[in-house]
Specification:
The complex is a heterodimer of chains A (323) and B (358). Chain A is an all-alpha fold. Chain A contains 13 helices and no strands. The N and C termini of chain A lie close together (8 Å). Chain B has 358 residues and is mostly helical. Helix content of chain B is 75%, strand content 0%. In chain B, helix 5 runs antiparallel to helix 6 and helix 6 packs antiparallel against helix 7. The chains are: A mainly alpha (323), B mainly alpha (358).
Chain lengths: 323, 358
């Protein structure tokens, strides 16, 4: 399956297609959007941007007004939009994009509601409980909506909840010092989700086939595997080499699945990057770094590895098109 | 995205008398954008180690600004020669890329040492260096990098001169111009596209940081823009204007009449987002990225636009330019207005109109 846009642009560069004919060629190949496609695009764009901005506005509003409003006012102001949105969902139905977007909005607003509950009733709950509850609350909707973006949101919440459970420091900084258990749990969660999603997509559930959500998942799963390998290499925690093993297993599985069965070059590229990062870390850790030459060596290894990886990936990507 | 084969595509073009002769051989293998991104990122890591090597080996280069600039320039020249030598191997391309990055790093270090507090001079010099590299080095990834860092350097110049509110609209305007004209440049189109991607990245970066580019944090200068609130509003108005101009140019390119249903919707949307940009400056450029990307059939750009929008919203929460109340009002109002515009879309632009219908 060729990418028509790229092919046509190539042909111009090779001189086989006159530059003044480029536009007509693109039109003939239906590369550029038609009027109908534009309409659909603008329809979705306005819907999504409208929804996202509105939700953001609501969330900002509550961040601001925390202290001023009375209890009932607060709850009313959050619950009302949720109810209104749910009415929309009921009227619009979950078949079209509008209904799904509305349900997503309701899910986002639910988070605001839960935050409000926690704040108002001083339950003494930790932040992670907020995210865990939020994920649990919107799970039924996620199942109903059949919307990849919704599931990505849900998984993000699950990840956040887990991470916050284990961390006492701030989120990003604390990841470096995260206990090994957290890395393992996140790795397990993201990889299990990835496997499940791919399996379901392969077994014929159409709406799950959207590649980009899967790639986000694969990125999360791969990042956790890489983190596990790196924590082993750097020896910060005594995980006894299991992390590196898990990483190697992940690489092998990713190769088997994404090279042989499903052919998603993005995941393979992520794997190559992961290998480069881990090997660089390994070398940097074990080679004495006060020699100028050792820097040169590591630099050359990185370049060589990534070049080889890039060459291999390009071949894989192009061999798809030949088939 | 249709799923035509190359042969079918060529046939169709031949039927339209746009090409003649036999289907050309498959050209140089094309890498998907994420492979190139992976190569670019690894190139950075490699360059970092090369930079440390030079630093350790040529310690005098680290103490003497001229030596640093000289060696850096030499490294870039060597890399340019390696690229131009026509050797197509991936290793030499990666190696040259890393050497060039290390050279640029050295030059930046030397220039910074030399010019000291006058950051704008360093930034201006680096912009000139990047322009030269863009012209001289015939490698796509390298050109994207040169365009990105060159535009960012120019934005730094504006920042240091306290004109930072002008940076986002200017960079975004350049980006929009490059992509709208994408199909008009014939043989040099590849260069333009590299510049386009670089400018897209720069536009995202500059907008996310409100044109400050951390200069204020970095240098510790806490002054507002030149001209005070006039500066703010000028920048904001320019951002809005750029978005409306982008839509106008697109409509003109596609041959859509401004008074037609589609034309009105497009302009209404642009005006709305432009208004929002007055207070939430990132919304316009992110939308421009998305729309221009879609208009050119370029999924990568469109995806970048979505990422930019979400990133900007997260950043907006913490920005100190307005109270949370104002921000929430702006966002909510814009959201509602967009949904109203969508209703107008269904009204003014019913499905299944013929193309070009007024």
């Amino acid at each position: 399956m060729a990418n028509p846009r790229d092919e046509i642009l190539d042909w111009v560069e090779q001189g086989r297609l006159a530059p003044q004919n480029l536009r007509r060629a693109l039109d003939a190949a239906a590369v550029l959007p038609s009027t109908d496609q534009w309409r659909r695009f603008l329809d979705r764009l306005l819907a999504f941007m409208g929804v996202v901005l509105l939700a953001a506005g609501v969330i900002f509003f509550f961040a601001y007004n925390w202290n001023e409003l009375g209890r009932f006012a607060k709850f009313g102001l959050v619950e009302a939009p949720i109810l209104v949105t749910l009415v929309f969902v009921w009227r619009l139905g979950l078949g079209g994009i509008a209904g799904k977007a509305a349900l997503l909005l309701a899910a986002l607003l639910t988070g605001a509601l839960l935050a409000l509950v926690g704040q108002t009733y001083q339950t003494g709950a930790d932040t992670f409980e907020l995210f865990a509850l939020w994920a649990a609350a919107i799970l039924p909707w996620a199942l109903l909506a059949r919307f990849p973006a919704f599931w990505v949101l849900w998984l993000a919440l699950a990840n956040l909840a887990l991470a916050l459970y284990f961390l006492t420091f701030g989120l990003l900084f604390g990841m470096l010092f995260a206990p090994a258990k957290l890395l393992w749990l996140l790795f397990a969660l993201d990889t299990a989700a990835l496997v499940l999603w791919e399996a379901l997509a392969a077994s014929g559930i159409e709406w799950l086939r959207e590649r980009w959500s899967l790639r986000i998942l694969a990125t999360a799963s791969g990042a956790m595997a890489t983190a596990l390998a790196m924590s082993d290499v750097l020896g910060w925690r005594d995980s006894g080499g299991w992390g590196a093993l898990a990483w190697l297993a992940w690489l092998a599985a990713a190769y088997a699945v994404y090279r042989r069965r499903i052919k998603d070059v993005y995941v393979l590229a992520g794997g190559v990057l992961s290998i480069v990062v881990v090997i660089t870390t390994l070398l940097a850790r074990h080679i004495r770094l006060h020699d100028a030459g050792s820097f040169l060596f590591i630099g050359l290894v990185v370049i060589g590895l990534s070049a080889a990886g890039g060459w291999w990936l390009t071949n894989v990507a192009n061999e798809e098109e030949r088939s | 995205m249709n799923s035509m084969t190359r042969e079918a595509l060529w046939e169709r073009l031949r039927d339209g008398a746009l090409v003649e002769g036999a289907l050309p051989e498959r050209g140089e293998a094309r890498s998907p954008w994420f492979v190139r991104a992976m190569l670019g990122f690894s190139g950075w890591i490699g360059a970092l180690f090369l930079f440390m090597f030079v630093g350790a080996f040529f310690t005098f280069a680290m103490e003497n600004a001229f030596a640093a600039i000289g060696i850096g320039a030499g490294a870039c020249a060597a890399a340019a020669l390696l690229f131009r030598s026509g050797r197509k191997g991936d290793f030499s391309a990666q190696f040259a890329f890393a050497v060039s990055l290390a050279g640029q790093g050295l030059m930046l270090y030397g220039l910074g040492k030399w010019f000291g507090k006058e950051i704008w001079l360093t930034a201006l010099a680096m912009a000139a260096v990047q322009a030269a590299l863009f012209a001289l080095v015939p490698n796509f990834l390298h050109r994207v990098w040169a365009a990105w860092t060159g535009a960012a350097a120019l934005a730094f110049v504006l920042s240091d001169l306290r004109l930072y509110t002008l940076a986002p609209p200017l960079v975004t305007a350049a980006f929009v111009w490059a992509w709208i004209r994408e199909f008009d440049f014939g043989a040099r189109a590849a260069q333009l596209r590299a510049a386009g991607y670089g400018l897209a990245l720069a536009s995202m970066q500059v907008t996310l940081m409100h044109g400050d580019l951390w200069v204020r944090w970095f240098v510790g200068r806490d002054s507002g823009p030149l001209g005070g609130w006039i500066g703010y509003w000028l920048g904001a108005a320019l951002s809005a204007a750029v978005l409306v101009w982008a839509v106008l140019a697109l409509l003109r390119r596609e041959g859509v009449a401004l008074g037609s249903g589609p034309g009105r919707i497009a302009l209404a949307g642009a005006a709305l987002l432009g208004l929002a940009s007055l207070k939430a400056s990132g919304v316009g450029p992110a939308a421009a990225l998305l729309v221009v990307g879609y208009a050119n059939g370029n999924r990568v750009l469109a995806g970048l636009g979505i990422v930019a929008l979400l990133g900007y919203l997260s950043h907006y929460y913490y920005s100190l330019q307005a109270t949370l109340l104002e921000k929430s009002a702006i966002l909510a109002a814009t959201g509602v207005a967009l949904l109203v515009a969508r209703a107008a879309l269904h009204l003014w632009w019913p499905k299944q109109t013929e193309a070009g219908d007024a």
